[in-house]
Amino acid sequence: SMEFTDRLTRVEPSATLAISALATELENDGADVVDLSVGEPDFPTPRNIVDAGQDAMDAGHTGYTTSAGIIDLREAISEKLADDGLDHGPEEIIVTPGAKQALYEIVQALIQDGDEVALLDPAWVSYEAMVKMAGGDLTRVDLSDSDFQLEPALDDLEAAVSDDTELLIVNSPSNPTGAVYSDAALEGVRDLAVEHDITVISDEIYKEITYGVEPTSLGTLEGMADRTITVNGFSKAYSMTGWRLGYFAGPEDLIEQAGKLHSHSVSSAVNFVQHAGIEALENTDEAVAEMTEAFEERRELVVDLLEEHGVDVAVPDGAFYMMLPVDDDDQAWCEGAIEDAHVATVPGSAFGTPGYARISYAASEERLEEGIERLADEGYL
Ligand code: PLP
Q1: Distances (CA, A) of 235 to 10, 69, 347
Q2: pLDDT digit string (tens) for 235-261?
Q3: 243 with 355, same domain?
Q4: Which of 179, 204, 283, 361 has the fewest CB atoms found within 10 Å of its own CB?
Q5: CA distance 64 to 51
Q6: Would the CB of 205 count as within 6 Å of ligand 1?
Q7: Is residue 39 lining ligand 1, measured as CB closer than 6 Å?
Q8: Are residues 131 and 279 located together in one domain of the fold?
Q9: Pocket test for ligand 1, best of 106, 124, 241 (most atoms within 8 A of CB)
């Protein structure tokens, strides 16, 4: 029989799989499942981006590209980052098939056996898996006692990190909480990163989806430019999850090292998809604003409906998720909710924070109303 590597056998299969499997099973039996477990916008990719992708295909942009990505896209990304206050020329940018691949390459470039990586919990599920696959050890800081805000938990972060900490991953706006960290929180991160010489990944994939707040990019803070790697992508803001397009920007030596993994594995992101990415960055502000407005209205709706049922949530300032406080055994709660109410959510323990379920409000208002009504009717609220 085959023998598998430690780096994979030490990684758990995603806890969301059990929920998806249950949902599929129920749907196959004819049940109408309200799926609030999805991590993607429910809008089609804006028409101008689809057209740009098709035009690029028609124009013959179907071959390999430069491994780091076509120069026009990297220049457009460089300009986007400049709008965010970050200074990265095209030579400091690698275009990847999704932000997930960007994060994977960075972790592989920086982390090896025994290196310590700090996460802010609840944290997106793949950070843990990526660190473990690289051989790293995790130190985790729980933000659930501070409404998922980092500023009140800076003392805990200070206690968790040390000179042994190699890397800290910050994701604001956050998946799964929707929290946007304050400038004071980011300054606290900066002070600790400088003190302990920690490299920081700033995963800004939800930066464009916020409600009345402007998230600061960590790399703009004094002292952070040469220790921050900024990750972003097209999946969420432009509703392009299946196109697989993302990028990272950072110091040139990091780009050089990670670039080896990139060129020896994926080679490059898809050629015509990169062309569509230019259109997304340059001509899609209006569609992004419309989608964000829709998410904001849904957020209001869900928060109000939950309040009517006596449930208070930490109101998210960005992304399209919120954490619903549930039983201590959140896995059992989520399984029950899908079996009894036919409403799919993701257990908080998947993100390192038991006692919650993640609701995605990237669903129509009608489905959101239906889902919450069912949860209430079946005694889950
Ligand atoms: N980072 C976070 C926090 C996410 O939620 C996701 C997607 O769910 C990603 C990165 C990766 O997105 P993609 O690979 O589609 O660009």
Answers
A1: 28, 17, 23
A2: 999 999 999 999 999 999 999 999 999
A3: no
A4: 283
A5: 21
A6: yes
A7: yes
A8: yes
A9: 124
